[in-house]
Design goal:
The protein is mostly helical. The chain is about 75% helix and about 5% strand. The longest helix is centred in the C-terminal third of the chain and has 22 residues. The protein is globular, with a radius of gyration of 14 Å. About 25% of the residues are buried.
Length: about 120
């Protein structure tokens, strides 16, 4: 339970970072909205992303994993469609925003020393 809450907070911080770094990613609201967006992104990554990854596995293999950038961008775009205060201004912004969020989560995981269960 605590791990899930931490992941929601990290998703919110990653979205905040993406909004500052990527010109086409915008959100309206404060900390509460970022936590809501982090929850929605976490649920999308839990429920939708595995199916999309499985269906696009040939493209992932063909591109040596680079298609994961497109998948992460699509998940960010889907979150923007579900949330009224989050907007992504195109495919390039979605891919870059997904890349920033993914790198942030990867760096936090790498430096936290947490082991996957």
């Amino acid at each position: 339970m605590i791990r899930a809450l931490v992941q929601v907070v990290l998703n919110g911080i990653g979205l905040l970072l993406a909004a500052y770094v990527v010109p086409g990613v915008h959100y309206e609201g404060g900390i509460g909205y970022l936590l809501l967006a982090g929850l929605v992104i976490g649920l999308i990554n839990l429920l939708v992303k595995p199916f999309v990854t499985l269906l696009s596995l040939p493209l992932v293999v063909l591109t040596l994993g680079l298609f994961f950038l497109v998948i992460n961008g699509a998940m960010l775009w889907l979150a923007a469609q579900l949330l009224g205060g989050l907007s992504v201004d195109g495919c390039g912004a979605a891919v870059l925003g997904g890349l920033v969020m993914g790198l942030f989560n990867w760096l936090v995981g790498a430096f936290s020393g947490a082991k996957e269960d």
